[in-house]
Specification:
Elements: H1 2-19, H2 26-29, E1 32-40, E2 51-55, E3 61-63, E4 80-87, E5 94-100, H3 109-114, E6 119-125, E7 135-138, E8 150-157, E9 162-173, E10 176-186, E11 196-199, E12 209-214, E13 224-229, E14 233-238, E15 246-249, E16 256-257, E17 264-265, E18 267-273, E19 280-286, E20 292-298, E21 308-309, E22 321-329, H4 330-340, E23 348-351, E24 357-362, E25 365-370, E26 380-384, E27 392-397, E28 403-408, E29 411-416, H5 421-426, E30 429-433, E31 441-445, E32 451-456, E33 459-464, H6 468-473, E34 476-479
Parallel strand pairs: 16-17
Antiparallel strand pairs: 1-2, 1-22, 2-3, 4-5, 5-6, 6-7, 8-9, 9-10, 10-11, 12-13, 13-14, 14-15, 18-19, 19-20, 20-21, 23-34, 24-25, 26-27, 27-30, 28-29, 30-31, 32-33
Signal peptide: 1-28
Domain Alpha-L-arabinofuranosidase B arabinose-binding: 348-478
Keywords: Glycosidase, Hydrolase, Signal
Length: 480
């Protein structure tokens, strides 16, 4: 009888959440079993892109996708920083939003903050592994004199039944030019409301980085907690996202600041709750010393003095710069590791008549080479065809995610998926028995079915095939 009553109580509780405008959180559907971190790695040639890392315990991290980027921006500045992962309340949709900024392109920090992009870059997914092409949303265009839109975050707001996107913009207000936090509301991460001022610390104190975490049962006295880099690492609490926030203190007692009082100068606060526990880690980036992220721990966020430093953590091989952490359900974790984990199956295409050579991309051209370096240039994910998933395949680059082998004027190239039907057709092939050897494979063009993938003078193209030499050129072995 008690078990029946408990089940009825859980059903009623879930029903109340829906009636109040809150979909059941993913944690109520499936316990969390792991963690996913999205981040960038710095100002190197491809450092300002989306990188992913995985952890089982929330403290020790393994780089995914062999340490390469998992998503590349092909819009705006063609670089992204400060990514945030957002999950819908019922766990059926995900977004990654990020700063549209690429310092590695030669942009100065002065130009980036005074005449930079006013857009954010957005990716969308229904399964956390297959992502849309990136798109831009203009969040700061309505702010007078806006110079940029940096360090975005987003959170579901049950009070309004939509998401609050908040970020930093440098602009002049009441005669003072500095970064302040602004916000918009959205239901789809495509259209947004007019920007509203969210956080202004007064005087000349700017603020760029802030992140909110929701705490079940309002442990510590508040439903939401906010950590902000505003000279200190300031901790605040509130019961509504857009309501009044109460300052609870900062991390000065740990010798940590955002520069106002020296010590260990950090930025980019990033929350993560330990799965199944009333324990939180606030990760802060030790950018001033280049030591990367470190966690500070609390079991009750109601007072900043509850935070303590800790050891016993590792961050993998890549530098982790400003990002966010998503607690993963078992199903999400399985999907993520299947695509990007160390056991993910990556394929190469070996030439039939030049068996020391493999298909690879080089400066976005496609050819067959021996001794490919870096090896990732010759590794692909063989995925269901973009234009037809039944009996057809497409080849996605491992180290240029979102880029596929496609033909253009019959020549093969590695190109970013632009989401068009023309691209999908050009990047889709039918895997058939090898034309020179049926135990190997050949690849027939989807939209030019009389033509097959073949190499000619080591370069790849699609051609009609008839001679013995052409058949050998058009035959490949798919190997791991």
């Amino acid at each position: 009888m008690p078990r029946i009553l408990t089940r009825i109580s859980n059903i009623l509780a879930t029903s109340v959440l829906f009636l109040a405008g809150l979909a059941a959180p993913a944690s109520a559907l499936d316990p969390f079993t792991g963690y996913l971190m999205a981040h960038f790695i710095g100002e190197s040639a491809r450092g300002e892109q989306i990188y992913l890392a995985h952890s089982k315990d929330g403290l020790n991290w393994t780089d995914l996708n062999a340490g390469g980027p998992a998503l590349l921006s092909t819009v705006g500045t063609k670089g992204v920083r400060d990514p945030a992962i957002v999950r819908s309340p019922n766990g059926d949709k995900y977004w990654i939003i990020a700063t549209d900024l690429r310092i590695a392109s030669g942009t100065s920090w002065g130009d980036a903050s005074t005449k930079g992009s006013k857009n954010l870059v957005v990716w969308e997914s229904t399964d956390l592994v297959n992502w849309s092409v990136p798109r831009l949303i203009n969040v700061a265009g309505g702010i007078s004199g806006a110079g940029d839109a940096w360090a975005p975050e987003a959170i579901w707001n049950p009070a309004t039944g939509d998401y609050v996107i908040y970020w930093a913009t440098n602009s002049t207000l009441n005669g003072v030019t500095k970064h302040r936090i602004w916000y918009v509301r959205t239901s789809d991460f495509k259209t947004v409301t007019a920007p509203q001022l969210y956080i202004d610390r007064g005087s000349g104190q700017g603020i760029i980085d802030t992140q909110i975490v929701e705490v079940a049962n309002s442990l510590g006295g508040y439903r939401y907690y906010r950590a902000s880099a505003d000279g200190q690492i300031t901790i605040e609490g509130a019961n509504t996202i857009l309501g009044t926030w109460t300052r609870l203190g900062d991390l000065q007692h740990l010798g940590i600041s955002n520069g106002a009082t020296g010590g260990n100068v950090v930025e980019g606060p990033m929350w993560a709750q330990t799965n199944g526990q009333n324990e939180w880690h606030l990760w802060v980036d030790q950018y001033a010393t280049g030591r990367g992220y470190m966690p500070v721990r609390s079991t009750n966020l109601g007072a900043a003095t509850n935070f303590t430093t800790r050891t016993g953590y590792s961050l993998g091989t890549t530098t982790k710069r400003h990002g966010s952490i998503l607690n993963l359900t078992a199903a999400e974790e399985t999907r993520v590791l299947a695509k990007w984990g160390t056991s993910a199956v990556l394929k190469r295409l070996q030439s039939y008549n030049n068996q020391t050579r493999y298909v690879r991309h080089s400066n976005f051209d496609v050819r067959i080479d021996a001794s490919v370096s870096p090896a990732l240039d010759s590794q692909f994910r063989v995925v269901p065809g973009l234009a037809n998933s039944s009996g057809y395949v497409s080849f996605e680059s491992v180290n240029y995610p979102g880029h596929y082998l496609r033909h253009w004027d019959y020549d093969l190239q590695l190109a970013a998926n632009d989401g068009t039907t023309a691209f999908a057709a050009d990047a889709t092939f039918k895997q058939v028995a090898g034309l020179a050897d049926s135990s190997w494979s050949s690849f027939q063009s989807y939209n030019y079915p009389t033509r097959y993938l073949r190499h000619y003078n080591y370069l790849l193209r699609i051609d009609p095939i008839s001679t013995t030499t052409e058949k050998a050129d058009a035959t490949f072995r798919v190997v791991s």
